[in-house]
Amino acid sequence: MNRLIDIPFDYVWMAEQSKEPGKQFKRYVAAYVRHNHPGYELVKIHKMKAEIKRKEGGD
Fold first, then answer.
1. What tens digit of pLDDT does each residue of 18-40 get?
2. Origin, by domain of life (predicted)?
3. For residues 36 and 17, what is the distance between their CA atoms, to the nearest angstrom?
4. N or C end of the chain: smaller count of CB under 10 Å?
């Protein structure tokens, strides 16, 4: 079952400084999920929510 988590707003202005803000924002969110939700991975971004799911074979 997938979950929705909030994305820190700071990632928006940090990504805006990049040449490719959309790609950079996605990288920031994926790293946030890996760091703060071990065993989960990013599925999709819905505005300021990240849809995450448990990794296959993960605890």
1. 999 999 999 999 999 999 999 99
2. Bacteria
3. 24
4. N
